[in-house]
Specification:
By secondary structure, this protein is of the alpha/beta class. The chain is about 30% helix and about 30% strand. The chain contains eleven helices and 18 strands. Bound molecules: zinc ion (2 copies). One zinc ion (ZN) binds near residues 55, 57 and 162.
């Protein structure tokens, strides 16, 4: 199965935390955390539609200005999600600049900001054409942690404790579209970019009578067919991927329950681990996880793969120890679960 969601950390494990997620068949990118984003090419930044900010400590939010600078004037809408006080944080950033000329640009950028509370979401809009004055504020229900739902994926969040509220996130691809190679070979069609288009039409939820153009005779001619029969003949649907991202939080019972719920059975779990296993006390005091705690959470939640990041700069040169401690704890819990399920 070829994954369509491609996540990668925006910096090395000692740099500002962040996760960039590209969708294979869409010119679209999601960004989790907005720290230093100078390593991301501008072309990629322009594809970002939604930014999920765990909290506004400087290493998670200093990239706001950089992103705004790049997307400004491109006529797009950028959605930003964050914890309690996030609307005021965005407003404060915008208030730091002079916008006297922006009304000369036509709708150069709209920011839609969503603030997550335990039992509701608050929304506000900042439009360049209004000199980024806060507008259209409203309050919405917040149900089962669901933050964003689209035909092909959803994003859930959980409010975690970091002495301030900090959001963890889980991105779930709704389904995965696979081409039946045997059927394709048996058909008169050849493989090629049209198959990616076909997958995209399915993700977009196009109706069965939607007409698909299929190249034949080495692309010299094309044939038209309805999506419904093509789907039936060539495609099978399997469960989609799940990617989870948790950073800057403390290991306690309440948080453990929330994290395990959120990241349950993720294909890849990106988890912070600033401290060594022996630094539990330091972790508790600073409200961060140790390597071992990251591994325990991954094991408990039954994730398939654990990737740790956000290492403390104090531990430069000890990357392999931090990784090993996390993977050891992860394996330990997995083995214990296997034994108890026999
Ligand atoms: Zn941090
Ligand atoms: Zn923090």
């Amino acid at each position: 199965m070829k994954p369509i969601i491609h996540p990668r950390l925006t910096n090395d494990v000692f740099g500002d935390p962040g996760l960039l997620v590209q969708f294979l068949y869409e010119k679209r990118v999601l960004l989790f955390d907005l720290g230093d984003i100078s390593t991301i090419p501008n072309g990629m930044l322009l594809k970002i539609t939604d930014v999920f900010v765990s909290h506004t400590h400087i290493d998670h939010f200093i990239g706001f200005d950089h992103l705004l600078r790049i997307v400004f004037g491109r006529g797009k809408t950028l959605r930003l999600y964050g914890p309690d006080n996030f609307i005021a944080n965005v407003e404060g950033k915008l208030a730091g600049f002079t916008w006297n000329l922006v009304d000369k640009y036509n709708e150069s950028i709209n920011l839609e900001v969503v603030e997550v509370h335990e039992d509701h979401l608050r929304r506000a809009r900042f439009r360049a054409i209004d000199k980024f004055k806060r507008s259209d504020e409203n309050r919405e229900p917040f149900v089962n942690g669901l933050l964003l739902e689209e035909p092909s994926f959803s994003v859930h969040t959980a409010i975690l404790e970091h002495r301030v509220p900090c959001l963890g996130f889980a991105l779930k691809e709704m389904f995965h579209v696979n081409v039946r190679k045997d059927r394709l070979e048996a058909s008169k069609f050849s493989s090629g970019p049209w198959l990616n288009e076909l997958k995209q039409f399915i993700f977009e939820g196009k109706p069965d009578d939607f007409i698909v153009r299929i190249p034949v005779n080495g692309g010299k001619e094309s044939k038209e067919m309805a999506l419904g029969p093509l789907k039936e003949d060539l495609i099978f649907i399997s469960p989609g991927q799940k990617i989870a991202y948790v950073t800057d939080t403390v290991y306690n019972e309440e948080n453990k329950t929330r994290i395990v719920d959120l990241i349950s059975e993720a294909d890849i779990f990106f988890c912070e681990s600033p401290f060594l296993a022996e630094e539990e006390e330091r972790g508790a005091e600073r409200r961060h996880l140790t390597s071992r705690q990251a591994g325990l959470l991954a094991g408990e939640a039954g994730v398939k793969q654990l990737r740790t990041f956000h290492f403390s700069p104090k531990h430069k040169g000890r990357e392999s120890q931090l990784r090993k401690e996390a993977q050891d704890a992860f394996c330990e819990v997995r083995k214990a679960k296997e034994i108890s399920s026999r």
